[in-house]
Amino acid sequence: MENTQRQEKASVQKALLDEEKSAFKKYRDLFVGKGGFFQFVKYECIVILFSWVPGALGIFVRRIFYRFLLRKMGRGVALGRNITVRHPHKISIGGRSFIDDYAVLDAKGEKNPGITIGQNVIIGRNTILSCKGGSIRLEDYANISANCSLLSETKIVVGRYTFLAGHCYLVAGGNHSFSRTDIPIMFQPSLTKGGITIGEDCWLGASVTVLDGVTLGKGCVIGAGAVVLDSLSEHSVAVGNPAKKIKDRRD
Predict the structure, then answer these.
(1) Candidates 2.160.10.10, 3.30.30.10, 3.30.540.10, 3.30.360.10; correct CATH number of 2-248?
(2) Are 97 and 52 in contact (CB under 8 A)?
(3) What DSSP letter does each residue of 118-161 carry, written as one string?
């Protein structure tokens, strides 16, 4: 897994820095991510014509035309204005889910599964779901509030009925070796701990940070501002930086 993530990360960086690629090719690789000129034209036309349209009309036309971009889109999905989609052929959205204005769904990577959003999921305004060669999966009824960031070089899984308050930050991967001083840190190996798994029916308070390698069992509650470095068992209540378990909800 570590080697795979290292290669994916390098490919994204290479796409930006490769002087042999034209600006058009870089754009297509990073935003569209699939196929030739026809796929590019389809992506551009749908985004330019329909991404900005306000009100009920905008939701209606995006419900029709974004089906031609996404891998899968269920019935009754509502997409807000100016949502950014990257590598849309690796994004699935289940029925009756709602994505608010200015959200980012970025599934980029060469061989990664991308983003899978279940049914009846809510993603708040300005929230970012970003794959850097990894995957993100939100199970049914998950609720991600405004201004959250979920960044995955490996995997992030958010369980059913789990909700994240505003400004939460989940980062799966993103650690760097810095043992060498002769090359920039960004070009040194990316270190991973297996991703993040948040179980069913959890509640993360405002501005909670969850780092790579953490698993939260079913029913965990994390206090606002906590930084979660270690896994927690089911029904734990934890607070602080670093987060410490203070009680069991079943007691």
Answers:
(1) 2.160.10.10
(2) no
(3) -TT-EE-TT-EEEESS-EEEE-TT-EE-TT-EEEESSEEEE-TT
The residue assigned the tokens 């490996």 is 154
* Burial class for 105, CB neighbours closer than 10 Å (0-12, 13-18, 19+): buried
pTM above 0.85, yes or no: yes
Q: 166-170: long-range contacts (C-beta < 8 A, 24 or more apart)?
A: 166/124, 166/206, 166/207, 167/206, 167/207, 168/144, 168/204, 168/206, 168/207, 168/208, 168/209, 168/210, 169/207, 169/208, 169/209, 169/210, 170/196, 170/198, 170/209, 170/210
Query: pLDDT (tens digit, 9 = 90+) per residue, 165-199?
Result: 999 999 998 788 888 999 888 888 878 899 999 99
Predicted confidence (pLDDT) at residue 2 exceeds the cutoff of 60: no
The SS3 assignment for 236 reads strand
Give the model's pLDDT for residue 185: 85
DSSP β-ladder status, 175-176 and 190-191: antiparallel
